[in-house]
Each structure stands twice: as C-alpha cells, then as structure tokens.
Amino acid sequence: MKIKLKILLTFFFSIYFFSQTYLKSEDDIYKKIDLFSEVLNKINNQYVDEVDQSAIMDSAINGVLQSLDPYSAYMSPELYKNMTTETKGEFGGLGIEVGMEAGVVKVISPIDNSPAYRKGVKAGDYIVKINNIQVQGKSLSEAVDLMRGPVGSDIEITVRRRGEKKALTFVITREIIEVASVRTEIKDKNIGYIRLTSFNENSSNQIKQEIKKFKKNEKIDHFILDLRNNPGGLLSQAIKISDFFLKNGEIVSTKSRRDSENRKWFAKPGDILDGKTFIVLINYGSASASEIVAGSLKDHKRAILIGETSYGKGSVQSIIPLNNNGAIRLTVSKYYLPSGVSISDVGVVPDFEVAEENEEFRINTVTDNQLNFAIKLLNG
C-alpha cells in the first residue's frame, strides 16, 4: 500500500511542483513528496477520528488545482458523471452560477426568474453556509452537491454581501431550472430590446432571427443588448454575436503557454444593425463570454456600455478526463480584448456607471433604473 501511495504521490506532486519556480532542484520535489507522505501517515495514525484516505487524496488534488486559480478544480467520477449526464427531473436547483474566490463559494450570477433570483440572491454574494453547514474549506464541487436536491425541497443558504454588516439568510425551494436564452420586446415603440441570459449553441441564431423581425418594423431605430447576470457560455457564440455588430477588426484573442495554441478571431464585413445606435447593459453578473462581447464592442466604439463593471472572468477552461473516470477542469488560456487588455480579475468598465438603486431592483421591470437610463439616453 505504501509503495503504491509513494508512486501515486511521486506522479501527482511532480506535475505540480515542477511548475513552482521557488523549488530549485529535483531533490526539493522529492523532499516535498516525502513530507506529504509523512503528514498523511501522521493523520492516519494520530488524528482523533478515523479518516477516509480516498477523500483526503481527492481534497489534496483539488487543493493543488484551486491554488492555481478559482476556476480549476478536480471532479470525482461521480461529479463528472453528474456534469456530463442530463438529469431527468430527479434533481432541482437554485438557479445560480457559482465560482470560488479565496476558498469561498461566490455567486457569479443568478439566472433570470430562478428561485434564487426571486428570493433576492445577487451576483457577488459569498455563500458561507448551506443548511447550516459551513461552506468554507469545501471544494466548489462539494458545495454544488450540497445545493442539489429533489424538486420541491427547501434549502437554506446564508450569504455575506458587500455593504451589508450582517449575514443574509434565504430559504429557497428547488426547481427544475429552464433557461430561455433569448427574450425580446419593443421599448418606447422604437427600441428593440434583446435580453441574452446565456451563450448556448443556439444563441446567435436566435438573436439573428429576432433582429430580422425588429428590422421589419420601420419605427425601430435603436437597440439594447442586455447581458446583465449572463455568466457566459460558448466562446464560439460570443464570437458570432460580436461579429453581427462589427464590420471588421479583431474580436478577441486567446493566449496560452504554447505559442502554437494562441489564436485570434476577426469580424467579417457587415453590420446587422446597419450602424444604428446600440447600447449594451452589463453588471457584476456579466462574465466570460458576456465580457468578450461587451469588451470588443466597446474597444471598437460600436456600442455604448451602461451599468456596472463586469465580473472579470477572462480565462478558458478545458475539461480533461482522467483514467479513474473523473476529470479536471483546468485553465488552459486567457482571453484578450482587441486593445490587448486581459479582462481577468478587472472586468469591463461601462461608459456610464449606473448602480442598482435599491433592494427592490429587478431586471426589466419598473424598478430597473439601469434600463430606464439607457432608454432615456436613446430617446433624449
């Protein structure tokens, strides 16, 4: 058992510690491996309770990955299967996109009209407890697993929010989450409003069809693309949607460790809006693919951005299967806007900073002061 463990640890830690510049030689690597083996044996022999060695190793692997960035993580075979297999109504969710920050689960964005959204959970909230269980110290996968459960069952989550002195507690009933990627309506008789909540494989085609419908109405002379609380999705869709509004120039580029894997994408001739005035709404819940679209349109001065600075997720993750039927989610490259700026950690800054006015704020309702500001700006 010890020989197998040693081989496993040698392989596992060699991958990690080779990348650490502070280790000066191969001897340092093996000293760290020996140290980890010693710590593990001490835990097995002296810890107050009996421990699950497999669970400890899973946590160690996940710890290595999460020390790289908030988005890299280990998925056990069970979690990987759950991710790749569609659930058929057995489990419900809260309707939030989450990530990790400094070991704490952070809400990237709530999905429109989801149970969490209706209860008042907001982008940027830190989840500290789930059903009175402390979340800090758990992996993202473990926290997500705690949030899953039968449709119709209740869950209590406790969050910390910037600007609030006390923790906030929400009791939320799980539901099957159905995401309508594109919704449209006409505002003030002359503004084509497009709400995009995610970037899935059909998003670009849906937007194209909706814009064609708008263009048949001669009264429509302005457009609004609402990317608030859109956590992202497919890079290919972000590129296609950006291309709709740009006549030429770079849309986005990705850079990785290997120069041969660096890529750039460019717009094809033609602007689907024929140069009509165009506003993009963003907030802290706009992440990843949303930031590519907003950032590229801002860099090319094609759209006016209104709202709040976006999330700042400018990295690309790949799901890499493992021999144990699990997988790792690993950051393999970063996004760069046409200006050469990376959006990682800093986000996209709007041209007009307009914060949510109060706790009653809801997107595309009478309380939506950001949308109201955009409409007034377009129509004077």
What report would you give on this structure?
- The chain has ten helices and 17 strands.
- It has helices at residues 2-17, 26-46, 53-66, 77-84, 115-119, 140-147, 203-215, 235-245, 289-299, 369-379, and strands spanning 73-75, 96-101, 104-110, 126-130, 133-134, 154-160, 168-173, 182-187, 191-196, 222-226, 250-255, 263-266, 277-282, 304-307, 315-321, 327-336, 352-353.
- A hairpin with a 7-residue loop joins strand 6 and strand 7.
- With 380 residues, it is an alpha+beta fold.
- Helix 7 packs parallel to helix 8 and helix 8 (235-245) runs parallel beside helix 9.
- The termini are far apart.
- The chain folds into three domains: 2-77, no CATH class; 86-173, Pdz3 Domain; 182-379, 2-enoyl-CoA Hydratase, Chain A, domain 1 (Alpha-Beta Complex).
- Strands 2, 3, 4, 5, 6 and 7 form a six-stranded antiparallel β-sheet that branches. Strands 8-9-10-13-14-17 form a six-stranded mixed β-sheet, sandwiched between helices.
